């Protein structure tokens, strides 16, 4: 068994409640899929998360729709707009998770921005995460230096605060990696999310630097959309994250996206082996 240790695990182990996020990386390479909650509707979001689980996804990230998703490219921005046009709110997203939890215990992580969490109330938000069994949180616009604003609360409710490391992190890489929990989200490319033909960043160098100070699993995201890319990423890291390609399938097929999602995620998961 891989000996992954991090702050969240130390806390969780006190209650013999090992993080679901951590378990997803034990003895295998993880495939992590993403979709935007409420696109095309609440019921289909439940169906499509279950479809990803059926197809072999190890973790699913659920995006909470937000009006200003600064880290997202056009594909996911448009998904946010479609969901918000239906007046989807944060309570609706928690209701979606409740329905998902009736049929699967796949690890789930929210991807959102600090404003919706602040507006909802930090304590209220993370207490609700624990109640519905959301296991991790990714907040692209929360700088590492400001994470103490919520760190104590996320630990209180056993939600892994997942750190992002980008090619521009440079001198901050080791500092971020040392305090990482759940997994490290390694951003493959400069810019926003979206499908890319080539990953030009020297990921091996960044991963080596992370490995010097941390054993937290590393999953690479931003731009990944082909089995070939997933295979290469899986050879140097513990996981691959795919978002825009799945969201694009949903945009193209709408309420009939279940089979295309299963077919796509199945191919991507096989490429991790």
UniProtKB/TrEMBL annotation:
Catalytic center residues: 61 (proton acceptor), 72 (proton acceptor)
Catalysed reaction, written as an equation: (1S,2R)-1-C-(indol-3-yl)glycerol 3-phosphate + L-serine = D-glyceraldehyde 3-phosphate + L-tryptophan + H2O
Highest taxon in the source lineage: Archaea
GO CC annotations on file: cytosol
Alphabetical keyword list: Amino-acid biosynthesis, Aromatic amino acid biosynthesis, Lyase, Tryptophan biosynthesis
Classification via InterPro entries: Aldolase_TIM, RibuloseP-bd_barrel, Trp_synthase_alpha_AS, Trp_synthase_suA
UniProt cross-references to CDD domains, sorted A to Z: Tryptophan_synthase_alpha
HAMAP family: Trp_synth_alpha
Chain's role: The alpha subunit is responsible for the aldol cleavage of indoleglycerol phosphate to indole and glyceraldehyde 3-phosphate.
Family: Belongs to the TrpA family.
Official protein name in the record: Tryptophan synthase alpha chain
Provenance organism: Methanobrevibacter curvatus
